[in-house]
Amino acid sequence: MTKENPTRWYDRIAPLYDPFILGSYNRARQRTMQQLRLEPGQTVLDVACGTGQNFRFTLEGIGPTGTLIGTDYSKGMLAQARRKVEKNGWGNVHLLHADARALSPAMLREASGQANLRLDRVVCTLGFSVAPEWEAVFVRTWEMLAGNGRYAIMDWYTPRRNLFTQFVNRVAASDISRRWWEPLMGTAVEFEQERMAGGLWRIVSGTKPIAQNSQGSKSA
């Protein structure tokens, strides 16, 4: 396991991820979706979706007419997500194995089968503390978000260096000292921030100005 290449680690722990983690972040995930301001029929990109623990909360907001695209670089985690999708019969959930730094509108259109796809929402939970070159991931996904679209992030943060933070970083192959919310805060309007777990978790969200319209999308 290395921070430079956490994918192998997540491939190995994928079968154990839900049994150990499921439910641990449910309240935070729900609060993240509330900040995302989901509406029926919207299209949502879940970046670093893992085993799909956000999916049911997202689908409650977008309903059966919405579209959810989950992407992850770990094939093991995506395999667990695919089992979850099939078990629940979620026909409007589409999974994409991809490096988030290289995502494109064409890849999302192909994954969803929608030629005129408009990306209304982007969410990333527990991903920016892990992803290599996380700033590039944010820039790429922000570019694809439609004008007036909403972006939400939930993740760990603490500047402290102690045994606890070393343990978290080791177990999650992460760096929880990253100030991952700053690019969104500096770019979005209607920025919101909430802290949970004694300040160790942060949930942030913001709206993309219409003037910063996404590639190939029509303004709202």
Summarize the structure.
Helix content is 38%, strand content 20%.
Strand order of the largest sheet: 3-2-1-4-5-7-6
Distance between the termini: 43 Å
What is the number of domains?
1
CATH class division: Alpha Beta
Share in β-strands: 15-25%
CATH architecture: 3-Layer(aba) Sandwich
The chain-level mean pLDDT equals 91
Low-confidence stretches: 216-220
Shape: globular
Gyration radius from CA atoms, angstroms: 16 Å
Write the layout of secondary structure elements.
Elements: H1 7-21, H2 26-36, E1 43-47, H3 55-62, E2 67-72, H4 75-88, E3 93-97, H5 105-112, E4 121-125, H6 134-144, E5 150-156, H7 163-172, H8 182-187, E6 189-196, E7 201-207
Helix pairs in contact: 1-4
Describe this structure in words.
The protein has 220 residues and is an alpha/beta fold. The chain has one domain (7-211): Vaccinia Virus protein VP39 (Rossmann fold, 3-Layer(aba) Sandwich). Helix content is 38%, strand content 20%. A 7-stranded mixed beta sheet has the order 3-2-1-4-5-7-6, with helices on both faces. The longest helix has 15 residues, at 7-21. The protein starts with 6 loop residues before the first helix and ends in a 13-residue tail after the last strand. The model is unreliable at 216-220 (pLDDT under 50).
